[in-house]
Design goal:
By secondary structure, this protein is α/β, with parallel strands linked by helices. Helix content is 37%, strand content 16%. The protein is built from 14 helices and 15 strands. Helix 8 runs parallel beside helix 9. The longest helix has 22 residues. The termini are far apart. 53% of the residues are buried. Bound molecules: pyridoxal-5'-phosphate. The site of pyridoxal-5'-phosphate has 14 residues, from helix 5.
Length: 447
């Protein structure tokens, strides 16, 4: 059985609104915040959360929202999952920090062992831990460069890899991630991805197009790594055509290029498997984890082929908080929950239920151009009816409408025209139905 959340009101099916959204207490906090927090740190919905449980977040005005974003795919096994909270709490009483690179501890090793068993492939691996997804990306690039002795990193169109200086150079979107933040890291190239809804290419055709760019615009002599999200997150849950990723990996292997799978959003149960790479028969050289790995505590990992990971010299990798014992304890509990709970089946159930419900919506709303995703990572793209042209503004209107009904929805896509679902895996079909009915109303109100 899966552990319940701390407040165990997970079985409730409907949101509960006690005030307007945001309520008076949230508005007061928001005023205080604006005097001390820069506007560059935004908030999708400025309701200030007081507690959270399973799929629910409750704000300081007592409004309870159905959270279909999970803090962008972080609380995958539910908010305040009891097993993760208990493990972290017990660890707090033993030791909070010694720094693994000063005096190590077992949890770090144990989590590396668990990742070694679970990443795709049968090769020997090593894992280094960091604090955030962007840091995992940075470390992967360092490792790939050290291993290959080459400079260039290729990222895909519509990619998102983070907000640190190196990572933001890999993002598709300049605004808001990069605008005005230059000079940017050199030797980052972007190449076309596979986007079946928009490009109409099969996996082989899309891979041939990507590879032609890699060969003509960079050349294998200088190319250290190709980095790809198996399903693009910020980019709008773009699921590549079958065969695309393995063809790219095969080309990389043949040319001594490190293939990095950024599984920061897709990994650890989200798509109904440990890693989304599995759905595409992809065996990456390096796999990046973060977001859902520690049930809400900050942690990230780079797991990869031993001979690549061992390229940097001692002291070349690390960082003060990387692999913090409390985060690691929570992560070990997350792995245990995923292993022994019903979460993988729940992710598949959520995917089947949501996609079927969205298909029925599409029959009534011609603006739904594409529905896509795997497991509990589903999205629909809003287009001008009869075309694949992005419909501007509609997705954020749907999200705002839903917020007023107590449903927390995230948008995505380089054109901002995608609604994405990243529910906790504790979300029931009935709760999803409530959300889809609200979206139905929102889409009707668009006309
Ligand atoms: C969120 C995300 C990142 C960045 O992770 P942070 O923890 O925010 O630094 C990188 N890659 C992908 C695919 C992500 O979704």
């Amino acid at each position: 059985m899966s552990a319940p959340g701390l407040f165990s009101d997970t079985s409730l099916s409907t949101p509960r609104l006690r005030t307007e959204v945001p309520g008076p207490r949230s508005r007061a906090l928001h005023e205080r915040r604006q005097r001390v927090v820069p506007r560059g740190v935004g908030s999708v919905l400025p309701v200030y959360i007081e507690h959270a449980d399973g799929p629910w977040v409750t704000d300081v005005d007592g409004n309870r929202f159905l959270d279909l974003g999970s803090g962008i795919g972080v609380t995958t096994i539910g908010h305040t999952n009891l097993a993760a909270v208990t493990a972290a709490t017990e660890q707090l009483d033993r030791v909070t920090h010694t720094l693994f690179t000063v005096t190590p501890y077992e949890g770090y090793v144990r989590l590396a062992e668990l990742l070694a068993e679970r990443v795709p492939g049968t090769h020997e691996t090593r894992t280094a831990f960091a604090n955030s997804g962007a840091e995992a990306v940075e470390n992967a690039v360092k490792i790939a460069r050290r291993h290959t002795g080459r400079r260039v990193v290729a990222a895909l169109d519509h990619a998102f890899h983070g907000r640190t200086n190196l990572a933001l150079a890999m993002n598709h979107k300049a605004a808001p991630y990069g605008t005005g933040f230059g000079p940017f890291a050199p030797d980052i190239h972007r190449v076309p991805n596979s986007y079946p809804y928009r490009d109409g290419l099969d996996g082989m055709e899309a891979a041939a197009r990507t590879i032609a760019h890699l060969e003509q615009r960079i050349g294998v002599h200088d190319l250290a790594a190709v980095i790809a999200e198996p399903i693009q997150g910020e980019g709008g849950f773009v699921v590549p055509a079958a065969g695309y990723l393995p063809a790219l990996q095969e080309w990389c292997t043949r040319n001594g290029v490190v293939f990095i799978a950024d599984e920061i959003q897709t990994g650890l149960g989200r798509t109904g498997t440990w890693f989304a790479s599995t759905h595409f028969d992809l065996v990456p050289d390096l796999v990046l984890t973060a977001k859902g790995i520690a049930g809400g505590l900050p942690l990230a990992g780079v797991t990869g082929r031993a001979e690549i990971m061992d390229a940097p010299d001692p002291g070349g990798l690390g960082g003060t908080f990387g692999g913090n014992p409390v985060s690691i304890a929570a992560a070990l509990a997350v792995f245990d929950e995923l292993e022994h709970g019903t979460f993988f089946a729940d992710a598949r159930r959520i995917g089947a239920h949501l996609s079927a419900r969205l298909e029925r919506l599409r029959a009534r709303h011609a603006v739904i151009g594409d529905i896509r995703g795997i497991g509990a990572m589903q999205a629909f793209e809003l287009s001008t009816p009869g075309t694949t042209r992005p419909l501007a503004g509609a997705a954020s209107m749907v999200a705002e409408f839903a917020a007023q009904r107590g449903i927390l929805l995230l948008t995505a896509g380089s054109d901002g025209n995608v609604i994405r679902f990243l529910p906790t895996l504790t979300t029931t079909d009935e709760q999803l139905d409530v959300a889809v009915d609200v979206i139905d109303e929102a889409l009707s109100a668009l006309r």
